Amino acid sequence: MKRPSFRRGGHVLPEALAPEDQAVVDAFRALLAARQNPQPWTPGCNQDAAVRVGPFIERVHPRPGDDHGPDLIAVCLEYPDYPYTPYPDRYTRKGWLRCETAAILGVWNPAYRMLTHAAAGLDLPDDVGMAPALYGVQVEARRKNNRGHILLRLGPYNQARHTDRDVDRLNTHLEGKADTVLPGFTLTVKGALFDVSDHLAYCDPYEADAVALLEAAVGREGALHPASSTGRD
What is the per-residue pLDDT for 229? Predict the structure, then answer.
C-alpha cells in the first residue's frame, strides 16, 4: 500500500499578504513603535501633541504664543488628518482648552490615528477632561511716558460675551476718572487672549465682582508704590 507523503512545514513558503492586509499590519506595527517610544513633547516646540481623552488618543494643536508654560498650555482638539482633512461638522468644536503638559503623551504621530474617536466613528465626548481657555480681561496702568504694567488680569472667561460685559462694566466704572483713580497712571481696560501659561496671575471673574477686583488691585498698587501718588514719571 502506498503511504501518503507529507512535506515538512519549514519547506512550505508562506503566502504573501494582500496589499490591504499588509497595510494594516504595517500600521499596527507603526502604532506599537510610536506607543513604546513616543517622541517627547516639550513646551514651545511648536508641534502638535497627543493626549488621552477617555480610552482614546486625540491630536491637539497648541495655541501659538501660548504653549510655553511648563505646567499648563492652551490647545484645541483637531481632527487626526488636520490640516489635510476638514474638521467634520458632526465633531463639535471645543475651542481653546486648558491642557496640563503632564497629560501629553508625546508629539502627535500619524500612527495614533487608529486610536482616535474619528477612527472608531464616534463623536468627541461632551466632557474631554479639559476646561475652557478662552479670553481674559486686563487693566493696564501707564504713565505719561507710556511706561507701565498690567495692574489686573481677569480670566478665563467661558464665553466671549462675558468678556465684553466686564470690559464695558470696568470702562463705565472708570469713565471720567481713568487718569485719577491711581495717581500718576492712566488705567486702560481691554479684552485679550487668556494667557494660560500665566494662569496663576489671573483673578477668577466668576467668583467675584470685576469692579470690586479692580478697586482691590488699585488699593494694593497704592500701598506697594506710594511714590506713585506724587505723580512723578
Answer: 45
